[in-house]
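Exercise: predict the fold of this chain.
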Amino acid sequence: MLSALFRIPWGKLLVAIAYLIAVIGVPLSVEALNYYNKAAIPGQPFEAPAYIGALPSPPTPDPTKKTAVVLSSAYGSEITDTLPPFEILARSGAFNTYSVAPERDVLPLGPGPVMGATSLDFVPHFSFKDYDAIVGAPPDLIVVPEFPATRPNATRRCLIGSAATSDLVPPCWPSATELCP
């Protein structure tokens, strides 16, 4: 019986165990730590960063192009719902593409349903009031990204006022589509 124990190929068995740990154990451990970190952080809106410098001047609209607006709330917006549509519309060359928020201040771009910060902040081109004063016409296209966990009333009023004359491009997330009555 003892001789059968020595016939087991221990080297191959240890290699197989090492592969199992590498292929299954390490990814499961990393995922468990990642899940713990996401669940441990409360889902509060991100604070807008403090900025004391002068904000850049708003762009001048080109009257020959249609206007596309990517909205943001007073607490920022979700990064992957905001930047890709903005980039696509801006690079198309067919639109005056603007980021518009209730106030023109430095705002965070949050990671959406994933908790934590992205450390990426932006300044909208216009506040709602500045947009009306400078552009003076409702946008032809409105992109509605995911907003932080609050219901932004100023953004909702902007949507209600513009919905009759604009095409809305809402995201898949329910909180932003609730803004559109």
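Check your answer against the key: Residues 168-181 have pLDDT under 50 and may be disordered.
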